[in-house]
Amino acid sequence: GGLIDVGWTGLAHWIMDPSSNLTKKKSAAPPPTKRLVIKAFKAKPKLPENFEQKTTAKLKDAVTAVHEKRPVNCSLEELYQAVEDLCLHKLAPDLYAVLQELCEKQISARLESLEGLPLDPVSFLNKMEDCWSDHSEQMLTIRSIFLYLDRTYVLQSVNVRSLWDMGLVIFREHFLRHKQVESTTTAGILQLIEKERLGEGVDRTLLKNLLRMFTALGLYVESFEKQFLNETAEFYATESSRLLQEVDVPSYFKHAEDRLQEESDRCNFYLDASTRKQLVLTVEKQLIQEHASMQLDRGFAALMDENRLTDLARLYSLLDRVDMLDQLRSSLVAYVKVTGAAIVMDEEKDKEMVQGLLSMKAKVDHILQKAFQNNETFTSSLKEAFEHFINQRQNRPAELIAKYVDAMMRSGNKTASDEELESLLDRLLVLFRYIQGKDVFEAFYKKDLAKRLLLSKSASIDLEKSMIMKLKAECGSQFTNKLEGMFKDIDLSQDIMVQFRQSPQFQDRLPPNMELNVSVLTTGYWPTYTPMEVRLPEELTTCQDLFKEFYISKHNGRRLMWQSSLGHCVMRVQFPKGLKELHVSLFQCVVLMLFNDAESLTYREIEESTGIEGTELQRTMLSLACGKPNCRILLKSPKSKEIAADDVFTFNSTFSDKSFRIKVNSIQMKETVEENQQTNERVFQDRQYQIDAAIVRIMKTRKSLSHNLLITELFQQLKFAVKPQDLKKRIESLIDREYLERDQKNSHVYNYLA
């Protein structure tokens, strides 16, 4: 499409005959040197007559031929030389004006021909594309002819546009002047885009070329983009309103994601790059931002319930685009609070509470990782949500978590390996962190740990110690001091029993076929146990006395108090169908040994002989006579689970079981109602002491303080939930005990009494 600018430098080209002697006689002498002399013209050169008119007419004919798409009469080299000649004779301005006028007439005529055409949008756009394509090609051809003008006059002149820019300006002016053409073109483009959005196939290349025309003319924003963005907003506003009624939440957001991708592809193919940001913002606003809150209320809970990770990840990504993650976080927190509260507050399903909380926590963590990109703000809010609902029901979650740990740590629990138990303990510790009443957990955990250690029911001492270390890292050494002391007592007791067995003076005095193992406990470390009286058989009394004599001889000044309720025995019983080894509690052992001398006994006789307290004796008799079939060592008459004084118990001579070792003492591991009440009462008492100490500590520092400020500081210092009424009672108690006094001038102010 252009001409090569060629100059002649006056070089002579010699053609030599191959047969000439010049090629053969290389050593011939050079011809004599000639001097070139340049002399001035005798007269000034003159242009031929009508040179400008003829040359201009020739060029005008060429331009007209280009516009009319017919062959040019002259060669392009000849036309180029004509332009150069006019420019060299300082006729470039006139030539530029002539060319501008010709282009203006051509463009005006082409655009006028498009006005009022009864065509459909696609046909009209094709005509418009042809017009623009012709103009572009013609301007390139014209520029190649007038290249010398473009490279000299245009570059050397101020405020004179290049030939290409001149053509664009003329096309722009006439395009704007012909309003119908402009509006029809814009409307047609918008109509095609809407059809494409509705799923119809369109000529994307046509759209691409026309939008590039708008860009080249500098009309893209003014004539197209503003209207395009407005119609885009209207289109998606209408579509979103319709979809809200027709599809569910996951499908809605999937559609929104697809639409955003479609618009991005549209930008890549035929829209100008500058449109991308505003277009995406428009679509995001109409499809996501305007309806996100309502859609979250409608369907977020269902997505969480069904664990739809892909949909949740899409939701996170879309809301992140419109800076609405706070709304998503609020919905997540609300869901966790409601779901968690339903688990915690359902008293009928207390046994399933901890497992339910573990499952819920694992599920939420998985969603947080896979769908919500481990967002730190979400993680922090989830922590607050768990703390909120798990403490709505005071004390009970802490108690049940402690009991869940106990069930996992007992021997005989074959549901998990040590590694799995270790992982489970870590997950339980996470729930433990959320609990405000950690003292409740400590009380029940200590009670259950004591039973596991004393009754040899722990699945793994290493796991027990690992749990203690985890609690120590979480709450400090003060929290685990007593728990660690319990392990020390067990270790010391083993050393004491080694010494006892190695002492002939005591070992030889034990009754035959008897072995003794005693755990010596430090009162401050272990839970408080209510002593229970029992009349031991002579053999067991002898064992007790021997150990007491041995221990006092080693530790003068110490006093032993026997805890019969925690004792357990292994006894061999000869049944008619074979010998069995029974693992029983001390109370069960005492009752069974009565049947060495009698075939049957009434409940009253057993009670008189053993001296065991009524409630405990009833539990013992029910476990021996009304438990599982493989544990019914005694037979009860009449058969019922209620015990009367005249009920008769008989040794079960027909007892048989495949196992040699039979555990009958499982009742010792079961928590009684009395034990539960006592543990809760001890927690309550300990809390009262902590409240009293906190009040005195604050008042000793502040000397004088108003009631409201004192309550506020107590809430900050106490590590468990407490009601203002309970704090007020403790304040009144301290006033009665003369630790504090009310101010004489203001009854709402307390003064510290030294």
Commentary on this structure:
The protein has 754 residues and is mainly α. It contains 30 helices and 9 strands. The protein has helices at 51-67, 76-88, 92-114, 121-145, 147-151, 153-156, 163-177, 179-197, 204-217, 220-246, 249-269, 275-289, 292-305, 309-321, 325-345, 353-370, 376-390, 396-409, 418-434, 438-454, 461-475, 477-501, 504-507, 538-554, 586-594, 603-610, 614-625, 673-702, 707-717, 724-736; strands at 568-575, 578-585, 600-602, 634-637, 648-651, 661-663, 704-706, 740-742, 749-752. The strands form 3 sheets. Strands 1-2-6 form a 3-stranded mixed beta sheet. Strands 3-5-4 form a 3-stranded antiparallel beta sheet. A hairpin with a 6-residue loop joins strand 8 and strand 9 (749-752). Helix 3 packs antiparallel against helix 4 and helix 15 (325-345) runs parallel beside helix 17 (376-390). The longest helix is centred in the last third of the chain and has 30 residues, at 673-702. Residues 1-26 have low confidence and may be disordered.
Features of this protein?
754 residues; three-stranded mixed beta sheet; three-stranded antiparallel beta sheet; elongated
The residue-averaged pLDDT reads 87
Fraction in beta strands: 5-15%
Global shape: elongated
List the quaternary state of the chains. Answer: single chain
| Secondary structure category | mainly alpha
Q: What is the distance, rounded to the nearest whole angstrom, between the alpha carbons of the first and last residues?
A: 107 Å
Helix percent band: 55-70%
- What is the alpha-carbon Rg in Å? 51 Å
Question: Any low-confidence stretches, pLDDT <50, length ≥5?
Answer: 1-26
Q: Total helix count? A: 30
The largest sheet, given as strand count, sense and whether it forms a barrel, is: 3 strands, mixed
> How many β strands by DSSP?
9
Strand order of the largest sheet: 1-2-6
